[in-house]
Design a protein that fits this description.
With about 375 residues, the chain is of the alpha+beta class. It has four domains: about 1-65, no CATH class; about 75-180, no CATH class; about 190-265, no CATH class; about 310-364, no CATH class. About 40% of the residues lie in helices and about 15% in strands. The chain contains nine helices and twelve strands. The protein has helices at about 1-15, 25-65, 75-90, 105-115, 115-125, 135-145, 145-160, 170-180, 340-364, and strands at about 190, 195, 210, 220-225, 230, 235, 240-250, 255-265, 285-290, 295, 315-320, 320-325. The strands form six sheets. A two-stranded antiparallel sheet has the order 1-2. Strands 3-4 form a two-stranded antiparallel ribbon. The chain has a two-stranded antiparallel sheet with strand order 5-6. Strand 9 (about 285-290) and strand 10 form a beta hairpin. Helix 1 (about 1-15) packs across helix 2 (about 25-65), helix 2 (about 25-65) packs across helix 6 (about 135-145) and helix 7 packs across helix 8. The radius of gyration is 39 Å and the shape is flat. About 20% of the residues are buried. The model is unreliable at about 1-10 and about 100-105 (pLDDT under 50). Keywords: Disulfide bond, EGF-like domain, Membrane, Transmembrane, Transmembrane helix.
Length: about 375
């Protein structure tokens, strides 16, 4: 029987066309047709499964390897946007699907739905849907935090209701601070969420921010705003001058701080006692003290001994310094005069250099 069966298979694989109606086929031929039909169906099914798995793997890969231009979020930021998206899902499903009709019946149905696994599934299925740039990172975080979301939904959320809190009010704190431990409350930093300097009311005296604030990273040092310095940003930086004074009480002690800090003039070498060039303690190189105007620019081009420009070049004075440019040939249309701008002289010098290079190549 099997020998005849394989003979039929070989016959059908030959290049010669075989015309047989299904009704007139032998029993072996009918079995062969059924066998080949089953193989074809199995092949189609496998292709379909491979396509589905490829799509799933591609989407999963995107979640862990975001698109090229996407800015990677730190663990705390990623957790927060995911928790916020989950909370938005709670809001979208807060009225359920029972609006209209008998109010009493509707209320009973709604209460059952609000605490149901059906609602949780709907929220999870649509999480991150409102995001664009960070959607992939949100999905990966949602997968990692799935168990924490479920525990909060069936346990902590009910405690909110008992405390008359808004639904989802404790979600971010529970998920990101207490469970996944990737964030700290505002005003705290580091692995153990230590308080920042001056917490809670005067962190860095309001003139800077705490390094690692709100995350499990950083060292808690004050990163001062421009113009401020010191361990707690309690004074002006070296190139800024204080103006006015305020008092702040911290830990039972009165601290005297500058009301504001302004930058010393560009002509000052380091410190200053007031604003403008007349407030400089010492003039910067390239400037000289004038009893009327304070630190003024030195014109190095006015005297040969003050600049190093050669005879065949232009000397152009700049604030605190000077520049040398090669002179142009008189035949050039862009040949500037002494009063020309630096931009024109630079252009002319480049043209001159290009012309000289061409002449040199011709001679060679």
């Amino acid at each position: 029987m099997f020998e005849n069966f394989f003979v039929k298979i070989n016959d059908l694989r030959s290049s010669e066309p075989i015309r047989l109606s299904y009704a007139t086929c032998t029993k072996h031929c009918q079995n062969l047709i059924r066998f080949k039909t089953a193989l074809f169906r199995c092949y189609i099914f496998n292709v379909f499964v491979i396509i589905l798995l490829s799509g799933y793997c591609y989407q999963s890969t995107l979640a862990y390897f975001p698109q090229k231009n996407t800015v990677l979020l730190d663990p705390c930021e990623k957790c927060k946007i995911t928790a916020d998206s989950f909370r938005l899902g709670l809001y979208r499903t807060s009225r359920g699907k029972h609006e209209g009709g008998d109010a009493h019946w509707e209320e009973n149905k709604l209460n059952n739905y609000l605490d149901s696994e059906i609602r949780l599934t709907e929220v999870q299925e649509h999480i991150c849907i409102e995001l664009t740039d960070d959607k992939d990172q949100c999905h990966s975080a949602a997968e990692e935090l799935e168990e924490h979301f479920e525990h909060w939904f069936f346990n902590e959320r009910k405690q909110e209701r008992l405390r008359n809190q808004k639904e989802g009010e404790t979600l971010q704190e529970y998920i990101c601070y207490n469970r996944s431990k990737v964030c700290c409350p505002s005003g705290h930093f580091g692995a153990d969420c230590q308080p920042c300097r001056g917490y809670p009311d005067h962190v860095c005296f309001g003139r800077g921010h705490c390094s690692g604030n709100g995350t499990r990273f950083g060292n808690g040092k004050c990163v001062c705003h421009e113009g401020f310095g010191g361990q707690d940003c309690e004074k002006c930086s070296s190139t800024f001058k204080s103006e006015g004074e305020i008092e702040i009480k911290l830990n039972g002690k009165i601290h005297k701080l500058p009301e504001k800090c302004y930058q010393c003039d560009v002509s000052c070498a380091s410190t200053c006692h007031s604003s403008g060039p007349k407030g400089c303690s010492v003039c910067k190189d390239g400037y000289i003290w004038d009893t009327t105007d304070g630190c003024i620019d030195v014109d190095e081009c006015s005297k040969k001994e003050l600049n190093s420009c050669k005879h065949s070049s232009y000397c152009v004075n700049t604030l605190g310094s000077f520049k040398c440019f090669r002179k142009c040939l008189e035949t050039l249309n862009t040949c500037p005069k002494k009063q020309s701008t630096i931009e024109l002289i630079e252009k002319c010098s480049k043209l001159q250099a290009d012309l000289e290079n061409r002449l040199h190549l011709k001679k060679a």
